[in-house]
Design goal:
single chain; about 350 residues; alpha+beta; Aminopeptidase; four-stranded mixed sheet; four-stranded antiparallel sheet
Length: about 350
Amino acid sequence: VDKAGNVLIRKPATQGKEHLQTVILQSHVDMVCEKNSDVTHDFLNDAIQIEIDGEWMKAKGTTLGADNGIGVASELAVLAATDMEHGPVECLFTVDEETGLTGAFALKKGVMNGDILLNLDSEDEGELFIGCAGGINTVGTFHYEKVSVPTEYFFFKVTVKGLKGGHSGCDIHLGRGNANKILNRFLTQAANKCDMYLCEIDGGNLHNAIPREAYAICAVPNEAKHTLCADINIFTAEIEDEYSVADPDLTIILESETPHSLAIDKNTVTRLLKTVYALPHGVYAMSQDIPDLVETSTNVASIKMKKNNTICIGTSQRSSIISACKNMATTVRSVFELGGA
C-alpha cells in the first residue's frame, strides 16, 4: 500500500509459466456517488441497496458502483482462482479515479514490475480498447447581487427529476435528458412571459455524471400564477414527448413555495439563463475512424450556488483527440465569456 492508498497485490506464476511476462491488472476502487433527492443514503456508511431487473443488477435510487466494481471483482477473481494457468500477475487497485486520477498520478516509479498493463475499467465484456479519452473540466462563475422581491408575488418551486442520467463518457450518446438544460428551458420561457425573480437554483453534482435532477425557486406576480400553471402543463407534455424513449420516467413538478425576501439580480439571471441555454451538451463529433465511437462530447454537469454570492456552472469535455478536446473546452469557455461569467 503506498502513501496515496493504492494497493498492489502480486500473484506468482503457476508452475511452468514463470518465463512469461508479468501482466498488471488495474482497476479503481472509488465510484461516482450520486443519489436521487428523495433517497436517504450515506455513501460512506450505508450499503448499496440492489435489485435484480431481468439479467441486470441495479441500485435503488443511487449509483451502483459497477464503475469500477466490475474491474475490482475481476482482479479478485484472478487472485482467488486455483484452476487458472498464468504468468506472474500484479493486481493494482488505485484510488480517486473519479475525482481526477489522483491515485494513478501518485504512483511512484518502480512500484510495479510488469511490462503489460490491462485497465479493467470498461462495461463491454470481451472487447479490448486501445487508447483513452482525454478530459477537461470547464467552470463558469457568475457573481450576483441580492435584491428584494416585491410584495404580491407567487413563489413556486419547479423540479425536474426521474431522469436516468448516467456517465458522461459511457452514456452521452444515448440521448438522455439533462436536468439542468430542461429546467433552464422552462425558466427561460417563464422569464420571457412575465416578471420572474430567481431566488434559488441547483442541479446536478459531479462533472462526469449527466444530471438527473434539478430545481429552482422563483417568484412571479400573483396575476401570472394561472398562466404559469397552464404553461408548465404544456411544457411538461412537450418534454415528455421529446424524451419518451430515452427517459420515460421524466417528471416535472411545480409546487407553491414559502416566500423568500431576496432573489438574484435580474441582470445576472438573464445572463445565467442565456448562458445555460447556449452551452452545448451531448455528442459533438463521432469518430471518423471507428464506427459508432463518440469522438468528442461535453456535459453541462452542475449548477451550484456558492458562498460570496456566486453561481458556478460545471461542465466536462471529453475527446479521443487532444486538439478536439481543447477546441470543445474553448467553445464552452467562449459561451461563458459571452455570458459575462
